[in-house]
Write the structure tokens for this entry.
Amino acid sequence: DLFQCSRCRAQISITAGTIFASTKLSLTTWFLAIYLITQSKISVSALSLKRTIGVSYNTALLLKHKIQQAMKERDDSKPLDTEYIQVDDAYWGGKKRDGRRGRGATGKIPFVAAVSIGDKGHPLAIRFSQVTAFSKEAIKDWAQKHLTPKRNVVTDGLECFTAFQESGHEHIAIITGGGPQSVEMPEFRWVNTIIGNVKNSLHGTFHAISKKHFPRYLAEFCYRFNRR
């Protein structure tokens, strides 16, 4: 009994202040969950995680959200710092049969999609962040948090993106127009490609994602991409 108490105290001391704090699961179970979530090519659902590590669904969901949050905080602590950054507006979900389409469709979740481009024109890192709306205030806040100073930011002609210039960045606005041709422009090749990959990955794994937890699912994809 004394040995068991000493071991418990040692584990509490080690895990205090981490995502393992106050857990009743063994650390080996946590490490296996971390491995599965961070190393999978596609996102692992809570149901799949439950079956693999042998816990209840609610426990698997809690583990997943805690690990996703740690991934998000880790990536958010590292602003994009290459010379050129491709940025675009994107949306997730929304009702499909209420007569409203496009950016104004009911229930859509707006998020900023950004890709840092290396010297050879290849993507080095991505940052997808949910925003309240595509307003100048929201873009200024996003730029301050996720970009190092004086980047060259390439966007389309959306009015809110002028906030990049007001935030001290070199803003390159390209009017894309509408239609399929607008997403095939070379200036937005990588950001449009990765937006498509994110949406296909999430649609292929989950039936639905709540607005409350959506930033974590975006962060999970970004974390894996940035460490591929």
Summary: The radius of gyration is 20 Å.
